[in-house]
Specification:
By secondary structure, this protein is an all-alpha fold. The chain has helices spanning 21-29, 38-51, 56-61, 63-69, 75-78, 83-90, 99-115, 117-124, 144-156, 163-172; strands spanning 5-6, 12-13. The chain has one domain (32-172): Hypothetical protein, domain 2 (Endonuclease III, domain 1), CATH 1.10.340.
Length: 190
């Protein structure tokens, strides 16, 4: 069973947070904290899609590069990217250079712009409330909610999102609180 481990300050944390300095900061200040705005949700969705098949640390270390390359993840701007932008992105070592993921990020921006605030509503309808934090034996990578969310996002035209990516998005933006039960980070909701 996985249990929270003491960090450099003695606080108990989810063990993955102690494997890299970037993880520590991400775990303590961002992972699982509510993100409700369209732009923030679009960024997290895009980053989770780029992470597919890679380690999260790769994406986290390239996050600033992704933000520069994708205009701060402003969906209005990214939706207007053309083949010149794709060529630019494919030669940018500051990001993951995967044409399918780049094209999906641009296409997803178009969908997000069309949906407007409904995009955030679509995601937040899958919030999981009242489920206790995991004990360390739970190890979820999907849930009924992430399966349903992925299905709905795909129907809306979003690409590169399956149940596992949807679940990682849910964890990242506070739809589910998967900090270990004995982790110091305060519960998202009391």
């Amino acid at each position: 069973m996985i249990t929270a481990q003491p960090g450099p300050d003695g606080r108990l944390r989810c063990p993955w947070a102690l494997t890299a300095p970037e993880y520590l900061d991400y775990h303590d200040h961002e992972w699982g904290q509510p993100v409700t705005g369209v732009r923030g949700l679009y960024e997290r969705l895009s980053l989770e899609a780029f992470q597919s098949g890679l380690s999260w640390i790769t994406i986290l270390r390239k996050r600033d590069g992704f933000r520069r390359a994708f205009a701060g993840f402003d969906p209005e701007i990214v939706a207007r990217f053309d083949e010149t932008d794709v060529t630019r992105l494919m030669s940018d070592p500051a990001i993951v250079r995967n044409r399918a993921k780049i094209n999906a990020t641009i296409a997803n921006a178009e969908v997000v712009v069309d949906l407007g605030d409904r995009f955030a509503e679509m995601i937040w309808r899958y919030e999981v409330v009242g489920r206790p934090r995991p004990t360390g034996a739970d190890g979820r990578t999907t849930s009924p909610e992430s399966v349903a969310m992925a299905r709905e996002l795909k129907r809306a035209g979003i690409r590169f999102v399956g149940p596992t990516t949807a679940y990682a998005l849910m964890q990242a933006v506070g739809l589910v609180d998967d900090h270990l039960r004995d982790c110091w980070v305060p519960p998202i909701r009391s």
